[in-house]
Q: What sequence folds into this?
């Protein structure tokens, strides 16, 4: 059953929007005000100039002049705005509270949690995606690979002649709410959906893709089991006509198939039907009486991780009506994406690989497993509450790899040194990424590589993984 339209659900209600300076909060305010839903109160932790700075930081998808116009429009709405010390003032009168996806990480949002527990409904920008889109949604989540898979699905549908739209889960992408009026019933909407967006989400997409699940964001959810359940939310509300695309090679996603309405599996290691699998350098997509084959042995981006991503995208796109020739063309053209194990240069015979989105040990382990030449690894960053055991996937991957030396940075450097010491490879601590890149250039030999795959989040030294990855690229370029 389709969710109620936003106009029906929210008109006349006392609505409070948190994080007004952020992409999500400002998009919700814009969307509701354009539809005549004006009973709004906005809140933000940032006051004065900090509010404007936060708005600028979180709206990078807008060119600077349009960013200034968007901020002026937000102020011109005249929505009551409580910031700084007045944050959450009057919240107890809310009928509905719109929250950003990271709201539960902030101690000052304890009153929000209390109101939720007393029955006040929470909503979000992601809720509005589902309540607004007139077309079917393909939602993609997973610990690793979700952006790449969502990107490929979108390109495969477009190349097949479908009208398709895409929104990723970062501030470089235009939120769907800003082009909701352009969506048609015959379109497809492809969304990358994070674990935080899934918390409390009461809707599921028509096609739900879960790429894999590995320990991550445990500081958000407390336990790995709770994190798995949050990921399963993507398909938990599917109806009898909806489809689940799940990784048969990952035990946690394969287990989800038992409760899925219409599961379709993908696998690098075995033939699965209905689903997608590998056979003689080709992907076989088998469903009902239809079988499509797509060559995958000539992809520019190689390795097990890319094959998994390709199979997930092929299966979901095929279920949405993409053609085999179009899907083959997209895979052949694909050269990788920023922050996701991309080659950013080769200097002095040394290849430099930037993988800043490897914010957890499983993601870094996947990058290490793809290495086909001796390499120097740069790893480390922030990982609150981590233990040496958390880095077991990375340690095991490194033990099987041709790694020659490991350079450790950031808040987790000492913990990583303890976790990786038994490998018997040279381990060196460096205070900063700058120092680590300079040292890597000294010890890497022609024919080798330098892999920057942190296995940790970036918040000890950088605003986010994008700033961290961009800094690595700049350092590589500067040292040519």
A:
């Amino acid at each position: 059953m389709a969710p109620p339209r936003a106009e029906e659900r929210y008109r006349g209600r006392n609505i409070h929007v948190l994080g007004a300076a952020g992409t999500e909060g400002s998009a919700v305010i814009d969307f509701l005000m354009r539809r005549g839903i004006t009973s709004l109160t906005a809140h933000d932790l940032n006051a004065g100039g900090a509010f404007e700075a936060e708005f600028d930081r979180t709206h990078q998808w807008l060119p600077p002049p349009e960013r200034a116009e968007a901020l002026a429009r937000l102020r011109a709405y005249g929505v009551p705005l409580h910031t700084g010390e007045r944050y959450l003032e009057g919240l107890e009168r809310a009928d509905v509270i719109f929250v950003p996806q990271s709201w539960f990480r902030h101690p000052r949002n304890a009153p929000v949690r209390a109101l939720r527990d007393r029955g006040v409904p929470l909503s979000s920008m992601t809720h509005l995606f589902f309540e607004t889109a007139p077309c079917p949604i393909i939602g993609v989540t997973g610990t690793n690979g979700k952006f790449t898979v969502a990107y490929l699905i979108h390109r495969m549908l477009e190349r097949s002649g479908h009208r398709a739209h895409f929104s990723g889960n970062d501030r470089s992408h235009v939120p769907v709410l800003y082009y909701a009026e352009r969506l048609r019933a015959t379109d497809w909407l492809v969304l990358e959906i994070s674990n935080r967006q899934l918390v409390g989400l009461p809707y599921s997409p028509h096609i739900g893709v879960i790429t894999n699940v590995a320990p991550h964001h445990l500081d958000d959810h407390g336990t790995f089991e709770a994190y798995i359940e949050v990921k399963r939310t993507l398909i938990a509300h599917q109806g009898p006509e909806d489809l689940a695309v799940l990784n048969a090679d990952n035990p946690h996603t394969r287990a989800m198939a038992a409760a899925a309405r219409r599961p379709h599996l993908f696998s690098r290691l075995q033939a699965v039907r209905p689903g997608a699998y590998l056979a003689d350098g080709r992907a076989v997509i088998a469903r009902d009486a239809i079988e499509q084959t797509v060559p995958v042995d000539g992809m520019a981006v190689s390795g097990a991780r890319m094959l998994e991503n390709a199979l997930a995208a092929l299966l979901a796109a095929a279920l949405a009506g993409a053609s085999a020739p179009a899907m083959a063309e997209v895979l052949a053209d694909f050269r990788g994406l920023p922050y996701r194990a991309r080659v950013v240069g080769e200097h002095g015979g040394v290849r430099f690989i930037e993988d800043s989105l490897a914010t957890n040990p499983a993601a870094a382990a996947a990058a290490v497993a793809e290495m086909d030449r001796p390499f120097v690894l740069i790893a480390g960053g922030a990982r609150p509450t981590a233990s040496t055991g958390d880095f077991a996937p990375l340690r095991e991957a490194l033990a099987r790899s041709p790694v020659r030396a490991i350079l450790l940075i950031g808040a987790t450097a000492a913990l990583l040194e303890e976790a990786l010491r038994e490998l018997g490879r040279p381990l060196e601590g460096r205070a900063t990424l700058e120092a680590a890149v300079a040292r890597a250039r000294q010890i890497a030999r022609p024919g080798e590589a330098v892999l920057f795959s942190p296995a940790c989040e970036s918040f000890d030294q950088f605003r986010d993984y994008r700033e961290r990855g961009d800094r690595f690229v700049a350092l590589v370029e500067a040292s040519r």
About this structure: Residues 12-123 form a domain with the Rossmann fold fold (CATH 3.40.50.720). The radius of gyration is 23 Å.
